[in-house]
Design a protein that fits this description.
about 0% helix, mainly beta, seven-stranded antiparallel beta sheet
């Protein structure tokens, strides 16, 4: 069983083993006694076919197994098989399938993958929902308010279920622009604030006289044809209190006890200054002969309140009827019971001139707002030869005038009352009483001050952030409504759709043309599908059409569409008194609305005009130099205005020339007063005749303006003319 045997060193050595492999895996090959043998086996084998499994040897040959391989790839879109010599095959097919995407339909196999042939169309036929498709859930329909938005701030947009129809409910009292709020009433100022109309009373209308109460003793307050009238009271206010001592009945007077048989006593007879009685300090009107004793006693008046403002005056007459040593026969004092303070207001000087009545007056104005009592202290030392009857008082009265004490400097308003301070304000003395015992006595009735009593004197600290009127709240903005609330807090509410320039009107909508005109923004639509999309709500002035997807606005040519008059005031209507803001230096003389104007000259048009002077006296004489301003409300000059100008008619009955009785027009532009007058009276200004005046406003297009008429006499003489009349104030532009 070896081959290649050989001898070496006398010894035979075996060669390599004999090769007996017959190449059949199903036989076990061996060599026996030099002969190769092959015995069959039952080993596993491979018959060369990948589509059979479990091949085994049988009788010396490899026989195919009984099982086949699993060729299923779990893919519906392939046909699975086993090919002899090639094994498993997975070939793509075109069967119908399901791609598990609810948003596709007509799914088929393609390239071994399942895919949808078409996308599912989701439409629930509801115009108020946004339809989408979710791959898992399929079609979804969610409400979308934006689909019902009609771009109208004055509607609440909603979708009516289940019909799916948009509805647009009107919002009560809503507005998109100022014009929406016109209630047609001359008694209200109509504004659009935060898209809500507000109709604030302008204070010029009334139904009964009580609606016109102005708390002034100097006017008669009446309601005539729905308009408040405040003519000067006729006759002037009566004295607040008076006593002529005509009878012995003196309620609330305090009469002291007798002193050395001297008493204060009412006497009727022939000793009076006026009327039929007077009050005497003496021996009941009898002669004082033989009396050499010094006697003093003080008579006290009832307590009364002194009005605030104007002028309050105590007047009386007294007579000293005796001879004796030099004394102070009468001392008049003012007492403030709440503080225990007393001031000497008048001291009489003894005179040997007997039986002469002397009239005196005492200014009580510095005690405004206080309850006071007047003391009359008599002091007599009569000689033994005296034939007189003592001290007499008559005609004691407290009167009040609308006109404050005239002044030009504070020193004119000085007072001996240490608890009062006087100031000269607008040509009249104004006083403030400062002494106190408690803080309650310091109440100045001004909501914007904190009133305290410190070391016996009142202090009034201004409260931060407090207001008394809308003037205190001005933020100089054309586009806010400045108001002072009942809580004395300012509010500056944005006026809807207000503007001073076109840049403020940008609505970031490519389909609108934005503009600013007359202080209001407008947004003209340019994108459209139908004519209705272009409706600018101005049927009078424009024809609105949709052409090739763009809005076109054609002028109708109707009269008045250019609006040549931007603003006008003739001082004839219910709002004439409040059309301007007035600041005057003198009481009774200054700017104001006069309707009807006395003729001649009468108003330039209709019956009313703006007037500087005193309608009662028909002069502008106040006894001193005087001045005043009349300022308009804010007016926006249209940015596209053609030759805009301020115009008015003027009548002057004053001194001519440029030194005295000067009239000027100043402009406030966007709230800022210009340093130079826009117009001033000149030597060529006509006197005692109506004339037209114009001021160019071209430089202020697109800006807010206020115009102020300033008149100043500059002296106290030659002020007996009628004064100044201004009528038909307007801001106008030229229309094609």
């Amino acid at each position: 069983c070896t081959v290649g045997d050989g001898c070496s060193g006398g010894t035979c050595y075996a060669g390599s083993p004999k090769f007996c492999d017959d190449g059949n895996p199903c036989t076990n090959d061996a060599c026996s006694l030099g002969t190769c043998t092959s015995a069959n086996n039952n080993n596993l084998c491979d018959d060369g076919d990948p589509c059979t499994l479990g091949d085994a040897c049988v009788l010396g040959a490899c026989k195919a197994g009984s099982s086949a391989p699993v060729c299923d790839d779990a893919n519906l879109c392939t046909d699975d098989s086993c090919q002899k010599y090639f094994g498993c095959q997975n070939n793509p097919n075109s069967l119908a399938c399901n791609d598990n995407n609810a948003c596709t339909s007509g799914d088929v196999c393609k390239g071994g993958l399942c895919s949808g042939a078409t996308s599912v169309v989701c439409d629930d036929k509801n115009g108020c929902t946004k339809d989408t498709c979710d791959p898992t859930k399929g079609c979804q329909s969610a409400p979308d308010p934006a689909l019902c938005d009609d771009k109208n701030v004055c509607t609440t947009d909603s979708c009516a279920a289940p019909a799916g129809t948009c509805s647009h409910a009107a919002i009560a009292n809503c507005c998109a622009k100022q014009a929406d709020c016109d209630d047609g009433s001359a008694c209200t100022t109509d504004l659009c604030l935060a898209n809500q109309c507000q109709h604030a009373s302008n204070g010029t209308c009334c139904s009964v006289d009580a609606d016109c109460k102005d708390d002034s003793l100097c006017t008669s307050d009446t309601c005539v044809l729905g308009k408040c009238q405040h003519p000067a009271a006729t006759p002037p206010p009566a004295p607040l209190a008076s006593v002529g001592f005509e009878s012995a009945d003196l309620p609330n007077w305090v009469t002291p006890a007798a002193v050395n048989s001297f008493v204060w006593k009412q006497i009727s007879g022939n000793k009076f200054a006026t009327g039929s009685g007077a009050i005497n300090f003496g021996k009941s009107g009898a002669a004082l002969s033989g009396s050499q004793v010094s006697s003093q006693a003080e008579l006290l008046s009832p307590t009364f309140g002194v009005p605030v403002g104007g002028t309050t005056t105590l007047t009386l007459q007294y007579k000293q009827d005796w001879t004796g040593s030099s004394t102070t026969p009468l001392t008049v004092t003012i007492k403030v019971p709440s503080t225990g303070k007393t001031w000497t207001a008048y001291s009489a000087t003894y005179s040997t001139t007997l039986k002469a009545w002397t009239a005196i007056s005492v200014d009580l104005t510095p005690f405004g707002g206080q309850s006071v009592q007047i003391g009359f202290k008599a002091s007599i030392y009569a000689a033994s030869t005296s034939t007189g009857t003592g001290l007499w008082l008559d005609d004691v009265a407290v009167g009040w005038s609308c006109t404050p004490k005239p002044c030009s400097v504070d020193s004119t308003c000085s007072t001996t009352a240490t608890c009062a301070t006087g100031q000269c304000i607008s040509g009249g003395c104004t006083y403030q009483y400062l002494c106190c015992a408690t803080a309650a006595e310091c109440d100045d009735k001004i909501a914007c001050t904190t009133d305290t009593c410190t070391s016996g004197k009142c202090a009034h600290a201004k409260s931060t952030g407090c207001c008394l009127s809308a003037t205190d709240c001005s933020d100089t903005s054309t586009c806010t409504q400045d108001t002072c609330g009942a809580d004395n807090k300012c509010a500056n509410t944005t006026i809807t759709d207000c503007c001073t320039s076109v840049s403020q009107c940008n609505d970031n909508d490519a389909c609108t043309v934005d503009s600013c005109s007359g202080g209001l923004c407008s947004h003209q639509n340019t994108c459209c599908k139908a004519d209705a999309d272009c409706n600018d709500k101005d049927d009078k002035c424009t024809i609105d059409t949709c052409v090739a997807g763009a809005c076109k606005y054609t002028s109708t040519g109707a009269a008045g569409c250019c609006l040549p008059t931007v603003y006008s005031e003739a001082f004839d209507g219910n709002n004439a008194a409040t059309a301007f803001t007035y600041v005057n230096s003198a009481l009774g003389v200054g700017w104001g609305a006069w309707n009807p104007v006395a003729s001649p000259p009468g108003a330039k048009s209709s019956t009313g005009a703006l007037y500087y002077g005193n309608p009662s006296t028909k002069t502008f004489d106040s006894g001193s130099a005087n001045s005043g301003t009349a300022k308009s409300a804010k007016i926006v000059v249209p940015s596209a205005a053609n030759s805009p100008k301020l115009s008015f008619n003027l009548y002057m009955d004053t001194e001519s020339g440029v030194s005295y009785d000067m009239l000027s027009v100043y402009l406030y532009v966007d709230g800022i007063k210009q340093g130079t007058a826009a117009w001033t009276k000149s030597s060529s200004t006509t006197m005692q005749a109506w004339q037209a005046v114009a001021v160019d406003l071209t430089a202020y297009k697109g800006k807010s303006v206020e115009f102020e008429f300033l008149f100043n006499t500059n002296d106290a003489v030659s002020n007996s003319g009628l004064g100044v009349l201004i009528d038909d104030v307007a801001v106008v532009q030229t229309c094609p």
